[in-house]
Predict the 3D structure of the following.
Amino acid sequence: MTARIPPSVPLTSRHTRLRPPPVSFLHHIYERTRCDDVPVLWNADYETPERFVRSMYADNDAQFAIEDVRSGRLVGLISAYELDLHHGTAYVTLALLPGYRLRVWPLEATILFANYLFVRFNLRKLCGRSVQRDFVQLRSGADHFFDLEGVLHDHAMIDGETQDLYLAAVDRERWLRVGKPLLDRIRAPAV
Amino acid sequence: MGADVPEDLDAFWQVLATVFGHSGQELRENRDSTLAELGIDEVSLFRIVLDLQSLNRHFDIPAQADVRDTTLDDLWHYFTVMTHGHRGSGT
């Protein structure tokens, strides 16, 4: 989906910048799917790099590469899928390159992206699915940054073992109360 | 926006106590523990950083820092260096 970005929607924070993902970056991600330590999203068994890149464009409704503003490196991808304008919902996924997964500053991109989605698409609610392996890094955000709405037990098959799938959501009320105030705090200082 | 220099450095421990759910005194006694050992994940550290930036807008942690190798003492160090330009005793 290509949409004009309203000028009031910031895409740069102190440490991150959201950019349209270059094809070359998606190819780089495809290479990383050969590693063990990659998010489940990228572990899917794609037959060819072209098919992987095509699916990353076709299966997502809004998507940005996350750039480290200090180095200019692209460190991850943040995407929205299953965008439903009737119900006002979308699913969000964040995938960081292995070397950046435990860092704190890339999380600024989630604030920028959530704001982008709430403003650009006037959504009611953002949702996320996370398998147990990844949720351990997010768990403490429950009841503060997001609501934990459910757990599907033994739902996902990861590395030959079943794992629980966690369903999380941020509705507009929580966003306005908790998330939106953070936006001003993480935004890049005016030049 | 917070002031450049907090008037009371107890505010530092108060921010951590709020997120950790422990008293500031308990945290002081575990200052050599890593954040991961104290049960802190990336999301909580993100919250801590933002809350400390409301006390001192210059506060930040190194880009490569993560919860496995950052201790409470490291946080204190980053906070006091950014605030006062020297390492504080933290007591």
In short: The radius of gyration of chain B is 12 Å. The CA atoms of residues 28 and 57 of chain B lie 23 Å apart. Chain B has a mean pLDDT of 77.
